[in-house]
Amino acid sequence: MKKATDTKYLIKQRRIWYFRYIIPDRYAYAYPQKEYKRTTQEEHLDRAIEVRDILLMKLRYEFKQIDTGVKASIPEIAKKHLRELTEYKQAKSAPDATETDRLGLDELIYEKQRDIVDDASIKFIPRGTTQEEINKNAYEIDPQTSERISDQQDQIEALRNLDKTGRGIQFIKDATGERFNAYVQEYIKKKTDDGEKKKKTNDYRNAINEFSDKVKVENINKKAVRKWGRDRVLNENLQPQTVITKTQFLNDYLKFVAEDIEASWANILTPFPLNKRDLPKDNNTGKDRQAWSMEDMKLVYQADTPQVKNKPELKDLMVLGMIYGCRIEELLQLTIANIMNEENIRCIFIDKSKTDGYHPFGQRHLPIVDCLNPIIDRLIEGKEQDAYLIATASSPNQDRSALIGGTFNRHKEPLGFPRPKTRNFGGKPQTVKDFHSYRKVVNTNLTLLGLKTNQRESICGWGTAFQSKQMAETAYLDNKMAYPLVQRKEHLEQWASQFTFSF
Q1: Which residues have a Cβ under 8 Å from the Cβ of 503 and sit 6 or more positions away?
Q2: How does pLDDT run along the chain (503 residues), one tens digit per residue?
């Protein structure tokens, strides 16, 4: 014999059991209607009771959140839903998952999607909306098939019509992965696990987020991608090749979402990557780097700007750039262990294995000139072997070289050395003096001192000799024998002696 408690909070309509709960007055402000009603989708009472107990537990948990004031932000709730949904989908596609596992995970995925729609309805349908208004704004009947659409689709349609802000549908998209960058964290983790450097993964993340902000997943096609790429070139001053590289990142990410995450929206004919004919032509309108004059270098080095006061390590970075012409990435990857004695000469060792993967940096020893010894001594004092030689800040979205590179630009601009402001298509290259210009200074002056090409390569670390690992190792060994460190030090001392100001 059934007890009254068996059907508590349950009513039967059209052979289906529904959960119905009257929201207490003290919580009514947080819900769009006084009656909380959800289908159990069950015809049998025993199974409907199980669903009722789950829904009741969920409601009581929400009441507890309201009572304690411990409520996560909307983005945090969406991310939590997405994280759990992604875990279920990945477990379902695991090679060792049994048919029983997959059926169970299908049920979890369905329940999670229902929770997401429920959350969106509770949080974004305007307060005071009656159930009658919700029903009026739902699909109710599919006009093509004359059949009732699922309750979940009813809720989504009602939400779409009643939430004038559009935030409810956006919440559902964020929580179900219907945004291009929904799985960026999983993708970055995979890339990091595969051994990608932080600078490269930051570039992946930035490209994915930039594209996601401009293009919705339902609009991803070749035309939209081409427009996005052209806007980046024409309006944001990016080089066409830079945009092409970004779309290569996006193509790899789309493949990951389709194959590893199995998101349905990613199963499309890829519109990536772009090629040069999709973008405005680059008619030699890039940056024409000019070498710093001695007076320019003196001015930039000695200027006491707010940037130098906040980051005194900027001066140490400038000194090393002016003497050796190293790239900013090369200098910032140096640790205390990279200061070593080689052939009884104190050297800075540029280790190719620690570079960012973008440039064919040459592995090489750079003898420390005498005037730099006090600076090097100060930089290494009290530090462990694995500590950075130049300590400077980093952030989750920008690596150390990007941050201090931006600081250098802000330092030099008020001194009369601005960055190019526009792309200037069809015009001449825009002249610029930046940190990379120190390489031009060193190379030019070493040429004037009579150094041969292979000798300048050994100091600056550029040229075709370093294009592959095998060639780089051969060039490194050949140059070490043909261009001994004692001779390198002599030439570098000659260059350092030409400076008209002290460090």
Answers
A1: 301, 319, 371, 372, 375
A2: 445 557 889 998 888 888 999 988 888 777 767 788 888 888 899 888 888 887 888 788 778 777 776 656 777 777 788 888 888 877 887 888 888 888 888 888 888 888 888 888 877 887 667 767 777 777 655 555 445 556 677 777 888 888 888 888 888 888 877 789 888 888 988 998 999 888 788 889 889 989 988 888 888 999 999 999 998 888 877 888 889 999 999 999 999 988 888 777 888 899 999 988 888 876 444 567 889 999 999 999 999 999 999 999 999 999 999 999 998 988 998 999 999 999 999 999 988 644 444 444 467 899 999 999 999 999 999 999 999 999 887 766 567 888 898 899 999 999 999 876 555 555 566 678 999 999 999 999 999 999 988 888 889 886 544 444 444 455 555 566 778 999 999 999 999 999 999 98
CB neighbour class for 212 (10 Å; exposed up to 12, middle 13-18, buried from 19) = middle
List strand residue ranges (DSSP E) for 201-309, in order. Answer: 287-289
Q: How far apart are CA 474 and CA 469, in angstroms?
A: 9
Q: How far is CA 389 from the centre of its chain?
A: 27
Tokens at 121, concatenated: 């309805």
Interatomic CA distance for residues 90 and 112, integer angstroms: 14
Q: Is the peptide bond before 273 cis (omega within 30 degrees of 0)?
A: yes
- Determine contact, residues 270/255, Cβ cutoff 8 Å: yes
pTM for the full predicted model = 0.50
Question: By three-state DSSP, how is residue 62 classified?
Answer: helix
- Coil/strand/helix, residue 145: coil
Q: d(Cα 217, Cα 201) in Å, to the nearest integer?
A: 22
Q: What is the DSSP letter of 25?
A: G
CB-neighbour burial class of residue 372 (10 A; exposed 0-12, middle 13-18, buried 19+): buried
Q: For domain 291-496, which architecture applies? A: Orthogonal Bundle (1.10)
Amino acid at 201: T
Cα separation, 290 vs 76, in Å, equals 48
Q: How far apart are CA 455 and CA 458, in angstroms?
A: 5
Instruction: Count CB-CB contacts under 10 A for residue 344.
Output: 7
CA triple 401-402-404, angle to 5 deg: 65
Cα 220 to chain centroid distance, Å, stands at 20
Write the DSSP symbol of residue 251: H
Quick one: angle between helices 400-412 and 198-214, nearest 10? 70
| E strands, 7-109, in order | 10-13, 16-22, 35-42
* Cα distance between residue 349 and residue 362, in whole Å: 10
The C-alpha atoms of residue 348 and residue 388 are separated, in whole angstroms, by 13
